[in-house]
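Sequence, please.
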């Protein structure tokens, strides 16, 4: 029996290190957000496919692992979600892996039973909320076009009561039309009890970022970073998710140094398709971006490749999966770069200050607990 298990584990091993896996367990959702890139074709992952995806992920090289589970709306299939989480944690323990699991949700379906489970299993919870009612309701709407703000807002007290702050993050989508109020919306989200925020500039062909809106974004980000500094010195820790990731393992700056897409960009969709981008896997010409399936394995050219940016094969990978990230709304890529550049700057500044000021050293320790992706 041991020999069979060992043979199976070895078969699932990869020659690549996969640090982060995004597992989309369904394309179903109760919302119809205007900027959502997911095709709502009602697919749901099978437990068998999810199990194989976890085997492939957790048996890959490296001890540190981050699993992001999202959709669609994963809470539509809570029983399946529970089984996947329990299985992932069990496998990680057996393999001696350090595993962070983060669930991305619109939060509308959250109830006490679900929150009890997330708390008991120490799951990270990332809730989407685009600021105050006026701004959230511009794009995050139900299928009948009604805004979803009130539906999620009434759940926030229940969430903050049941989930530890270090396990709770708000996913803040920033529309070009709302960016002039970005700082005000950030303060609003903090007032609800969140201390970790992931700023997500909207990428969609429906929304164009003008030069003026890019400046608004930059100014709002600079102002927010200044607010974070001020609060750190007062002992009130507020966190920018991208800066947290940089403080933990320099993953943002390493991305700009062109790390292998297998390391932090692997996506598995409900039917087992694998790609390096959730956007590209939803495009009409997605076939050219599929790198394999969980059930059949990787395409031949990816099975034994090794990362070397000087090689032609790796350069082609980068051209296909990173340069083409700019397919969305015009200007969105520049705004994303601004977020990453300022996140790197913030992390460097905090690291430097931690050498002289203990409060910043304490802050880094807390920031490393707040890794949601």
């Amino acid at each position: 029996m041991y020999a069979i298990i060992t043979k199976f584990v070895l078969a699932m091993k990869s020659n690549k290190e996969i640090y982060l896996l995004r597992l989309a367990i369904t394309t179903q959702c109760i919302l119809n957000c205007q900027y959502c890139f997911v095709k709502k074709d009602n697919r749901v992952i099978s437990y068998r496919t999810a199990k194989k995806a976890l085997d492939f992920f957790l048996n890959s090289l490296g001890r540190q692992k981050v699993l992001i589970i999202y959709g669609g709306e994963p809470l539509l299939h809570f029983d399946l979600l529970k089984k996947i989480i329990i299985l992932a944690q069990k496998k990680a323990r057996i393999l001696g892996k350090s595993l962070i699991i983060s669930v991305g949700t619109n939060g509308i379906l959250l109830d006490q039973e679900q929150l009890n489970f997330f708390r008991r299993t120490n799951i990270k919870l990332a809730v989407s909320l685009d600021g105050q009612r006026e701004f959230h309701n511009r794009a995050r709407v139900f299928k009948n076009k009604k805004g979803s703000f009130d539906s999620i807002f009434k759940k926030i007290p229940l969430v903050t009561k049941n989930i530890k702050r270090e396990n709770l993050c708000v996913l803040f989508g920033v529309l070009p039309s709302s960016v002039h109020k970005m700082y005000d919306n950030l303060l609003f989200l903090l007032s609800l009890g969140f201390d970790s925020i992931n700023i997500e500039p909207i990428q969609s062909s429906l929304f164009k970022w003008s030069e003026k809106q890019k400046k608004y974004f930059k100014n709002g980000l600079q102002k927010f970073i200044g607010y974070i500094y001020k609060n750190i010195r007062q002992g009130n820790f507020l966190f920018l998710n991208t800066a947290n990731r940089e403080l933990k393992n320099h993953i943002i700056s390493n991305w700009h140094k062109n790390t292998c897409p297998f390391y932090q960009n692997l996506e598995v969709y409900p039917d087992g398709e694998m790609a390096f981008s959730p956007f590209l896997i939803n495009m009409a010409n997605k076939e050219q971006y599929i790198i394999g399936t969980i059930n059949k394995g990787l395409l031949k050219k990816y099975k034994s490749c090794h990362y070397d940016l000087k090689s032609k094969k790796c350069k082609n990978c980068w051209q296909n999966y990173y340069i083409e990230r700019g397919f969305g709304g015009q200007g969105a890529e520049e705004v994303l770069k601004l977020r990453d550049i300022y996140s790197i700057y913030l992390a460097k500044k905090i690291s430097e200050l931690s050498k002289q000021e203990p409060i910043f050293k304490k802050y880094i320790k807390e920031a490393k607990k707040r890794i949601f992706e």
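Residues 1-12 have pLDDT under 50 and may be disordered.
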